[in-house]
Amino acid sequence: MTHHIVIVGGGAGGIELATRLGRSLGKRGQARITLVDANLTHIWKPLLHEVAAGSLNSSEDELNYVAQAKWNHFKFQPGRMCGLDRARKTIQLEAKHDAAGVELVPAREIAYDTLVLAVGSKTNDFGTLGAAEHCLFLDSRDQAERFHNLLLDQYLCAHAHPQQEGAGQINVAIVGAGATGVELAAELHHAALLMAAYGLDGIRPENLNLTLIEAGPRVVPALPERISRPVHSTLEKLGIKVLVGSPVQEVSAEGLRTANGNFIPASLKVWAAGIRAPEFLRELDGLETNRINQLVVLPTLQSSRDEHIFVLGDCAACPMGDGKNVPPRAQAAHQQASLLAKSLARRLEGKPLLEYRYRDYGSLISLSSFSAVGNLMGNLTGDVMLEGRLARWFYVSLYRLHQMALYGTFRTLLLMLSDRLGRSTEPRLKLH
Ligand SMILES: Cc1cc2nc3c(=O)[nH]c(=O)nc-3n(C[C@H](O)[C@H](O)[C@H](O)COP(=O)(O)OP(=O)(O)OC[C@H]3O[C@@H](n4cnc5c(N)ncnc54)[C@H](O)[C@@H]3O)c2cc1C
Predict the structure, then answer these.
(1) Which of 31, 34, 52, 163 is disulfide-compatible with 3, CB 3.0–4.6 A?
(2) Residue 103: which residues within 8 A CB-CB, separation 6 or more?
(3) Of the residues 19, 45, 62, 115, which should be mutated to test ligand 1's pocket, given the most ligand atoms within 8 Å of the CB?
(4) Which ligand 1 atom sits nearest the alpha carbon of residue 80?
(5) How does pLDDT run across 269-327, given as a tens digit for each residue?
(6) pLDDT per residue over 62-113, tens digit each?
(7) Going from the N-terminus, what domains does the chain have, and what CATH number goes with each?
(8) For ligand 1, atom 23: residue with the closest CA
(9) Residue 119 CA, ligand 1 centroid: distance in Å
């Protein structure tokens, strides 16, 4: 029987791995590759803040797993993994129900020879009182679209009834001034300008009150301080209120209360601080996990307790050698997918596995169409600080690299052309 590689999770890392393995082992008939995902389409997660603000129409940038599988010699199985039987080498998928609760697809099992888990992460609200109930999260396309619809509703309401009390104001609070929170704040400011330009001026851009709340002493705490400073000042120039050293203690329908006693009124509240891996990994047939449910892996990306199970991306606790783990970033998921594509082919040939070493190529923070700030690291250039249009160009090219891994260079160029044409025929903002 041909060796069966099952990849669970078709996100930034999983879809790249399935595509690479399909084009190599799958095409040559050396292995059967199956990708399992809970959804039918993939959208690159770093675009979700743009979906939330409406500056990106997710249905235009999504990738259909069924078609990708057909074009790249792998199989796709829709389903949500909920269990594992290591002795029998099978994974379990939940039953699927329709909106009325009628079972459409029964619970089932898929057998594997090699399993790759790439199920990503979710936002961690650290059990903060009221956060799960009153905050929105940006973990999936559905959540980002929900935020966009709520934002649009407020605009439409204010546009239709400009005389109603408070109609001309929206208070939005974002918890967490990491990359996601900062990028969302800048994107929302940009969306407010576009809404006004399209005539939805019941809420004037200066009346969109954006507050970014950070527990740590500075914005983008994971990046060097010299990047935090220009990011902070750009946000303030855009009129975004930035509160640092302000851990949120409680969230209610009316707003958020910080540990230092401030109350920030907000009708829309987004929690964008911290991550944890999905809950089902915690009890996965004895695999080792850390306190945020990530599966502990060896440098070969094999699970510490099962050599037939590999883990990549946000759901892997992969040591970097300095006591820290590889950060949950798209570039790490991409590097690990590239390494595993080679390593799993070597494994079939009986050769030793490759070891993963994280290479930090720097980080770029998009401040919407206004600018970007960040640093790039390379062997020749060292650590270079970038700002403005050049940084913005590098930022956009990260997504283009992901597209190239999935579609190849020629189709990516066609997609870029189609995006450019789309910009001249469609509104710059999703207004529905
Ligand atoms: C708003 C936002 C902005 C970001 N911006 C950046 C950025 O600018 N730069 C950067 O480097 N990183 C950024 N990140 C982080 C980056 O998106 C992640 O590090 C990256 O997507 C992780 O890739 P992954 O393959 O591990 O998981 P994901 O891309 O999260 O994919 C996980 C996949 O697993 C599927 N799945 C989950 N559970 C199951 C299950 N039980 N069964 C089947 N399928 C399942 C999901 O449907 C999904 O397709 C951002 C994240 C967010 C949320």
Answers:
(1) 31
(2) 95, 96, 97
(3) 45
(4) 42
(5) 999 999 999 999 998 999 999 999 999 999 999 999 999 999 999 999 999 878 899 99
(6) 999 999 999 999 999 999 999 999 999 999 999 999 989 999 989 999 999 9
(7) 4-121+277-348 (3.50.50.60), 131-271 (3.50.50.60), 362-422 (no CATH)
(8) 12
(9) 8
